[in-house]
Specification:
six-stranded antiparallel β-sheet, single chain, 6 strands, alpha+beta
């Protein structure tokens, strides 16, 4: 039986959608609304799942709360959780990480805040693209990504970014900044994957 690190209530399994079309089972506290993510589950959860999960009880899950205790134990193995910080994560999202199993604990509202932050970053990349053709292609790829076809989207994005341009078709400065921002986000995700590995 898994227990909430915050209040020791028994965690309940909740179904969530995954980017890859597979089901994802998360563990949520019925008392405080916190969610346990096994290794990589936070990054695999489809955009919008936080709003759906937290809509189960609006009164309880309406706003984020900070952990009252600092000696939180991993619900999987009892290891003391450690505060996880990364400059690429929003400072308002508090992540507690198990150094043994690499799972993550998010207090109520922080999963929603994380997904909002991720959506803003992704939207900012698209909106910063000044070149209309470039912007439209990124929007199309973003729409495909939101529909859950991540593998195909990454393949198409790779093709798009590696397509040679003809003479006189140099990208605008805004388009180059958008690509650089997008690549920074992609490198961050890859770095997180390496840290988890």
């Amino acid at each position: 039986m898994m227990r909430c690190p915050h209040d020791q209530a028994e965690l309940h399994g909740v179904a969530a959608a995954c980017h890859y079309g597979l089901p994802l089972r998360l563990d949520q506290c019925p008392e405080c609304g916190g969610i346990w993510f096994d290794e990589s589950e936070l990054f695999r959860a489809r955009q919008g799942e936080a709003a759906r999960l937290e809509a189960l009880d609006q009164a309880r899950l309406a706003r984020p709360t900070a952990a009252a205790r600092r000696d939180l134990a991993c619900p999987r193995d009892g290891t003391r959780l450690q505060r996880f910080t990364d400059r690429h994560f929003p400072s308002e999202v508090i992540l507690e990480r198990c150094p043994a199993c690499r799972g993550l604990w998010l207090n109520r509202g922080h999963f929603r805040d994380y997904q909002r932050y991720r959506e803003k970053k992704f939207t900012a990349v698209i909106e910063s693209a000044g070149d209309l053709k470039f912007s439209e292609e990124l929007k199309r790829l973003a729409a495909e990504h939101r529909q859950g076809n991540s593998t195909e989207t990454m393949r198409k994005l790779g093709e798009f970014l590696s397509t040679p341009m003809g003479p006189g078709e140099a990208p605008s400065a805004e388009a180059e900044r958008a690509v650089n921002t997008f690549m920074s986000i992609l490198m961050t995700l890859l770095r997180v994957a390496v840290l988890r590995g």
